[in-house]
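Quick start: load a record and inspect it. Here is Tyrosine-protein phosphatase:
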Amino acid sequence: MSETDTIDRVITCERIHNFRDYGGYSTSHGRLRSGWLYRSAQHFDANAADLARVSGLGLAVVIDLRGRSERREAPCPRPDGFDAEIVSIEDETVTQAPHIEAARAEMTAEEARASMANAYHTMPFRPVLMQLYTRYFEKLAEVDGPSLIHCLAGKDRTGIAVALLHHVVNVHPDDMMADYLLTNVTGNIEARVRAGGRHVKARMGEMSDDALRALMSVEPMFLQNGFKAMAEQYGSIDGYLSEGLGVTPERRERIIARLTV
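Running the structure step on this input writes:
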């Protein structure tokens, strides 16, 4: 892991889950900025204290990876005076959040993990999600200020985006994976699983705790499957970034210049 302590990454909130800083890692270009790159789950349940915490981050842009129906069902409140640009697309990035799509009635924990791993084979190629990933990298190359990227649970669509950014700036693969896996230990895990479980159970009915925890967690093979699929379809992860998401060498250079110190 990077020299940056894991605890320093956590943005402590009562009702915004999986909220953390994904900067601070060493790269081949220097160090990725701290206090500049944030990721989280959705903010629908945020209370006043949480919103004050968000306000204090000085965000310039928020990239909301949720689809139209997800945003309609769970609109995110914003702090008073909040003037960050909100980037979203009026379409569906996925039919439902990946962990909900992967759920099946009466599935075991092993089946849940296999279903999530399988979802990563196709998730990076959802056309609307690719449009949002493109916008994410555009904003990172243009905006002089902190950004936040989130989806529903802040672990799959967001996890892929963050890992791709780490790849772009040459964060060590071990640090990239360690950051991805922080989802499993960051914040109030029990509250996060309960929050995610509400969405799953609303669509699938009752489910065992073990299966639900598997759906709400991440595993190395999930991200590995996503990267493998990118390489198979585009020749490499860099091919996916350049051909699929428009991360040209020039854009990569601008991102590196803005985000590393």
